[in-house]
Amino acid sequence: MICIKCGVSIKDGAKFCSSCGHVSDLKISPPVSAPLDASHEWSHHAVVARPDDLSKAVTNRYKDAYKVSKAVVAIGKFIKVVGAILGAIVGFISLLVGGAMSQLGGMSGRNDGVAFIALVVGALYGGIVFLIFYVVGVIVSAQGQILKASLDNSVHSSPFVNNDEKARIMSLI
Asked: For the chain, which residues make up each domain, given as ranges?
């Protein structure tokens, strides 16, 4: 068996690594790659190849997490588009109301600028609606990007997958 933390060979069935003390909860025997030379400083950073079934399980988990991050980013974009549409609708309605008030004011002989005020207030309200939705959409998209960055870090430092699998998981190849 090989310790997943430090890469040192340990006895089959051991509960703890005799080198680093890591709790061994995986039963991997025999090692797929050559044992690491623990005398080198860099040996605990080396990638240790894992059996295919474990590698596939980890790969699937990471791929599912990347799908979630992409969905969160897409939801953020959707919220921004909805905000733009709602802001435009509110602005258009204020234009219609302002035009109608202008015509009614012209019929009664008084046009004291109420129509213009209604138009300005409606346009401001439409802008505020758009701004609120846009900010929420940016926050949601940012959460998706943060999740993606965390996943990139996790995949890059995972001892369970080799470099080709890492590149595939992160959609680099």
From this structure: 1-49, 50-169
pLDDT in tens, 118-144: 788 888 999 999 999 999 999 999 999
Residue 97 has which token pair?
């109301």
- Tokens in use for 33? 């790659």
Whole-prediction pTM value?
0.61
**CA–CA distance, 108 with 126 (Å, rounded to integer):** 29
Rounded to whole angstroms, how far apart are CA atoms 141 and 149? 12
Reduced to 3 states (helix: H, G, I; strand: E, B; else coil), residue 104 is helix
Q: What is the dihedral of CA 159, 160, 165, 169, to 10 degrees?
A: -90
- Quote the crossing angle between the two packed helices 114-157 and 52-108, to the nearest 10°: 170
pLDDT score at 46:
47
**Residue 29 has what pLDDT?**
46
* Sites in the chain below the pLDDT cut of 70: 1, 16, 21-52, 105-112
Q: Report residue 19: phi and psi, to 5°.
A: -90, -50
**Strand, coil or helix: 53:** helix
Three-state SS across 73-95? HHHHHHHHHHHHHHHHHHHHHHH
